[in-house]
Write a structure and sequence with these properties.
The structure holds 2 protein chains of 2 kinds.
Chain A: E1 18-31, E2 34-47, E3 51-55, H1 62-69, E4 78-86, E5 89-90, H2 96-102, E6 107-110, H3 114-117, H4 124-135, H5 140-153, H6 159-162, H7 172-184, E7 190-194, H8 202-219, E8 222-226, H9 230-236, E9 239-244, E10 247-253, H10 254-259, H11 264-271, H12 311-315, E11 321-323, E12 326-328
Parallel strand pairs in A: 3-8, 3-9, 6-7, 7-8
Antiparallel strand pairs in A: 1-2, 1-4, 4-5, 9-10, 10-12, 11-12
Chain B: H1 2-27, H2 33-37, H3 44-54, H4 60-72, H5 86-121, H6 126-140, H7 143-157, E1 170-172, E2 175-177, H8 182-215, H9 218-225, H10 230-268, H11 273-283, H12 286-314, H13 316-319
Antiparallel strand pairs in B: 1-2
Helix pairs in contact in B: 1-12, 5-6, 5-8, 5-10, 5-12, 6-8, 7-8, 7-10, 8-10, 9-10, 10-11, 10-12, 11-12
Classes of the chains: A alpha/beta, B mainly alpha.
Chain lengths: ~350, ~325
């Protein structure tokens, strides 16, 4: 590992023990033309019941981080370094069978596309009962009652009837509700929601986010909410982590980061959100595009697009530098002077 | 649903009608059946008389109409060669062919599906590679060669299995079965393997590629994320989703098994319909040939209908129309 960067732990404001702790996670994809680093030295933690938004462009490594946590990286992708701890237990080195018992039971997952997440050949009830009985000791009848309760809880109307319907008989939004029910049915402490609203209509998106927020508050479930939509973050997240080209560039309380972003990239992201009531000629945009994984520039990966870069940015990789409950990986903030 | 079945039945009758028409017009080019029926020294007048008697001088459409009218009354004609009603001849031979085809199809499915699942799940294991190479041979080797090789090894060299015929059969009503005697079962082994080998290789490769396809889908990834056991993921979720194409191909292949039993039956002198048909061709035995072809068309039609109905059983998206909302 790149030793000098490891001294920085993700800032934890509370004294409450972390539910999930990711330390210097590195995910690699060996390819014929060399090894691609999809996630590079990423550290953060999540407290019980907290919603952490993870934002970034496509390919920034946010989904990959989520996939690594549930242990479902597709070979040849692999965790090449770092640790993942769930309630203080390491889970990144468990064998398939032991990790399988954690998936669904302790860490639930919600995927992007509700249309393809459900098996078309089985009723939603059967898929729920199957999941419940995999993790909880229940009879068929008990599991079905529990499945019915879950469907009611996620707001499926006429759940008694709908439980025996097949996925294709549900609309996209309703299917995502079913997927949420499936993710929560065994009572996990953490849910990894990978772009849960991206495939949905805008009007449905808000409903699903509200639902997710309410359910997690009611059950005390923490959520790692992966999205590229800053609006979703502003709406739902307690804290936000910003990723760029496989690295974490900024992390902190959502409201603070949105109001006063420290990293030039985060500021660029915020500038590109349209705001009602603010009269601007045109939205700010970040010039250029995120580098491909096989062409990440040396130094700070963002430096070719950064308007405030200086010599050091092109030579040295900045690490996360903590400041209270916030941290930013940018040389502009090295001595903790305020944002320029 | 009922309307669907009825529509398919009407279509099926049409298909069979055209098969018969096609077969009938082709038979004109096979030669003169009279030449096969009579001796060298039969006079021309005698031949002419026979020809009129059998209606062979009438135009083909008339002959065809006469044949169809007969079929509708349940009369399939008299074999020129054997001089017995064709339906009787076929009924005698039918059980042999159907039993052989059934066992061959069962063999292909019971071996092909597990082998396909295995090679799909573990594409990198050496056993998968061996199975895949063998399956290529199964597809590439001609049926008769496999049959002859089997006869050579297990029949001639090792002397384990009978090399021809059906062994002892037991008659149950009109049906004669080889399932109930040891010699009948032993006689079945080699022909069934020979006949099923190609289908086995085909089904295995199909199941494999479908498994590889399905295992990449989101719902399999989500099933894993739900923490389901590998068994539930592979067999409950993945395999079932491969079934629709497998059923389609298997259905078509069962039709082919029955139709192409001809070659296997010739190699093993299996007393089935295929052998009867080959002999009929040599003799230009038009009633036997027509009836055989119509029967094969009938089997195809029935199998395809069954396949369509099985789709409904497997895939709920076809079963339920409308439903609430959604794409």
């Amino acid at each position: 590992m790149n030793g000098m960067e490891n001294n920085v732990a993700a800032p934890v404001a509370d004294t409450a023990p972390a539910l999930l702790e990711v330390r210097s996670l590195r995910v690699e994809f060996p390819t014929r033309r060399g090894t691609l680093v999809a996630v590079d030295d990423v550290s953060f933690s999540l407290r019980a019941g907290e919603i952490l938004g993870v934002v970034g462009e496509s390919g920034a490594g946010k989904s990959m981080t989520g996939t690594a946590i549930i242990g479902l990286l597709e070979p040849p992708g692999r965790i090449a370094g770092g640790e993942i701890l769930l309630e203080g237990r390491r889970i990144d080195n468990l064998d398939y069978e032991r990790m399988r018992r954690i998936r669904g039971k302790e860490i639930g997952a919600i995927f992007q596309d509700p249309l393809t997440s459900l098996n078309p050949l089985y009723t939603v009830g059967r898929q729920l009962v199957e999941t419940i009985r995999t993790h909880l000791t229940m009879t068929e009848a008990q599991a079905r009652r529990h499945a019915l309760d879950m469907l009611k809880e996620v707001g499926i109307p006429a759940a008694e009837e709908r439980i025996d319907h097949y996925p294709h008989q549900f609309s996209g939004g309703m299917r995502q509700r079913v997927v949420i029910a499936l993710a929560l049915c065994a009572g996990p402490k953490l849910v990894i929601a990978d772009e849960p609203t991206t495939a949905l209509d805008v009007s449905i998106q808000a409903q699903i986010i509200t639902l997710l927020k309410r359910l997690c508050r009611d059950h005390g479930t923490a959520v790692m909410l992966v999205t590229h939509d800053m609006g979703v973050i502003a709406e739902a997240a307690d804290r936000v982590a910003v990723m760029y080209a496989g690295r974490l560039v900024e992390i902190g309380p959502a409201q603070a980061v949105i109001r006063d972003a420290h990293h030039p990239y985060t500021r660029g992201l915020m500038g590109s959100i349209p705001t009602i009531g603010r009269d601007v000629e045109r939205l700010e945009q970040i010039d250029g595009s995120m580098p491909r994984l096989d062409a990440i520039p040396p130094g700070c990966a963002f430096n070719p697009r950064c308007r405030q870069r200086f010599g050091r940015c092109e030579r040295e990789k900045p690490s996360l530098i903590g400041q209270g409950d916030r941290a930013v990986a940018c040389w502009l903030h090295e001595q903790g002077e305020g944002a320029s | 649903m009922l309307a669907f079945v009825l529509r398919r039945l009407v279509q099926s009758l049409l298909v069979m009608f055209f098969v018969a028409l096609l077969a009938f017009s082709m038979f004109r080019f096979l030669g003169d059946p009279i030449a096969q029926m009579v001796g060298q020294d039969t006079s021309l007048q005698e031949r002419e008389r026979l020809r009129v008697e059998l209606g062979l001088n009438d135009p083909v459409p008339v002959q065809f109409a006469r044949y169809v009218a007969g079929v509708l009354k349940g009369e399939f004609g008299i074999s020129y060669r054997i001089g017995r009603p064709v339906d009787e001849l076929i009924a005698e031979r039918l059980p042999a062919t159907l039993e052989l085809s059934f066992v061959a199809a069962l063999f292909a499915l019971l071996a092909g599906i597990p082998m396909g699942v295995y090679t799909g799940l573990y594409p990198d294991r050496w056993l998968s590679k061996v199975l895949l190479s063998l399956s290529l041979m199964g597809i590439a080797l001609p049926t008769f060669l496999i049959g002859i090789l089997l006869i050579l090894i297990f029949g001639v060299n090792l002397g384990l299995l009978p090399t021809f015929g059906r062994g002892e059969v037991v008659h149950i009503g009109f049906w004669s079965t080889g399932f109930l005697t040891i010699s009948g079962l032993k006689s079945l082994i080699m022909p069934a393997i020979t006949l099923g080998m190609f289908q086995l290789a085909l089904i295995m490769r199909l199941v494999r590629s479908e498994m590889l396809e399905v295992l990449r889908t989101d719902f399999i990834k989500f099933a894993r994320a739900r923490g389901l056991s590998n068994r539930a993921v592979y067999f409950g979720h993945a395999l079932k989703n491969t079934l629709v194409p497998v059923i389609t191909i298997t259905g078509l292949q069962i039709g082919s098994i029955i139709a192409f039993a001809i070659i296997t039956e010739s190699v093993f002198q299996w007393p089935g319909m295929g052998l009867l048909f080959i002999q009929a061709i040599q003799f230009v035995d038009i009633p036997v040939m027509s009836t055989y072809l119509i029967l094969i068309a009938f089997f195809f039609v029935v199998i395809n209908l069954t396949v369509d109905l099985l789709y409904y059983a497997v895939d709920p998206r076809l079963r339920v129309h409308g439903g609430a909302g959604g794409k």
